[in-house]
Design goal:
Order of helices and strands: EEEHEHHEHHEEEEEHEHHEHHEE
Mean pLDDT: 96
CATH class: Alpha Beta
CATH topology: Metallo-beta-lactamase, Chain A
Bound molecules: zinc ion
Low-confidence stretches: none
Structural class: alpha/beta
Number of helices: 10
Largest sheet: 7 strands, mixed
Strand order of the largest sheet: 6-5-4-3-2-1-14
Oligomer: single chain
Distance between the termini: 21 Å
CATH architecture: 4-Layer Sandwich
């Protein structure tokens, strides 16, 4: 008799990117596997949105970071501090590119040294502020248990070491893409995935107007890669262009429509903060 598959869900905790946006937080996504909350990226408003969408920070089991652009890590010190404040009872594992340990030493331990000293003075257990970093420098498996395997793909983005994460449970595959230039290897990495969270930062016409346009993927490229991969659900995130178009959601809907036209068999969703998928 087959084992009952573990409960699995994906929550978009932040569908936006760098710029402040009235309804879109910065990059943050939660994959919940058998009750364990795995957080991918921790951008602007991540801590606030985790609370809004039912994930108390002290219940975060593990954090994975794609790359060290500030829009993906600015709330990570806050997540560690607040979960400590709220009663976290374990050292928090944080996996990310080489440099994540120094970021936390400088941006948390050094930056908040007066606060940390003050709180320890009223009885906080310093052990539970701590984190265990796994610094990645190459592709490979970063987590392997019978219920979940996570492996990575490196792609180009802004000259940074940049990791995309693929999660496999006994019967489902979820991919959490980073910001990325298009790359033929993405097709294999997303092959037959049940759900892919993928950046759709803007159109080619928009990218031609900004100096960082070549760091990202156009809707046409998303559509082609997801079609060739046979991805089932495609969830668009990191919707930068909307912030340059009066935060008009129709701009993102237009990009989704482009993808649907290229890949009509897919289910394409414009990510929204709080959007949740049970798989
Ligand atoms: Zn980036
Ligand atoms: Zn970004």
């Amino acid at each position: 008799m087959a084992d009952t598959p573990p409960p699995l869900s994906v929550t978009v905790a932040g569908s936006g990117a760098v710029r402040a946006h009235p309804t879109r937080g910065g990059p943050c996504y939660v994959v919940t596997v058998n009750g364990r909350n795995l957080v991918f990226d921790c951008g602007r408003m991540a801590v606030h949105n985790l609370s809004r969408f039912g994930v108390a920070v002290e219940t975060v089991a593990e954090v994975f970071i794609t790359h060290l652009h500030f829009d993906h890590i600015c709330d990570l010190p806050l997540l560690l501090l607040l979960s400590w404040n709220n009663g976290r009872t374990q050292r928090l594992p944080v996996t990310g590119p080489k440099g994540i340990a120094a970021f936390l030493e400088n941006g948390l331990r050094q930056a908040y040294s007066a606060d940390i000293k003050s709180r320890m003075g009223h009885g906080k257990n310093a052990d539970y502020l701590e984190w265990d970093t796994t610094e990645l420098t190459k592709e490979g498996v970063v987590h392997h248990t019978p219920e979940l395997k996570i492996d990575t793909l490196i792609t180009k983005h802004g000259g940074l070491l940049n990791f995309n994460y693929r999660l496999k449970t006994p019967d489902k595959t979820i991919v959490v893409m980073s910001d990325s230039e298009p790359d033929p290897r993405i097709v294999d990495f997303c092959r037959d995935a049940d759900l892919v969270l993928i950046e759709c930062s803007g159109t080619k016409e928009f990218f031609d107007t900004v100096p960082w346009g070549t760091w990202h993927t156009t809707p046409e490229q998303v559509g082609q890669m997801m079609r060739d991969a046979g991805a089932k659900k495609v969830v668009l995130k990191h919707l930068v262009i909307e912030s340059f178009r009066d935060n008009n959601p129709q701009v993102s809907e237009g990009m989704a429509e482009t993808i649907r036209n290229i890949y009509p068999a897919s289910e394409v969703f414009v990510g929204a903060d709080g959007m949740k998928f049970d798989l």
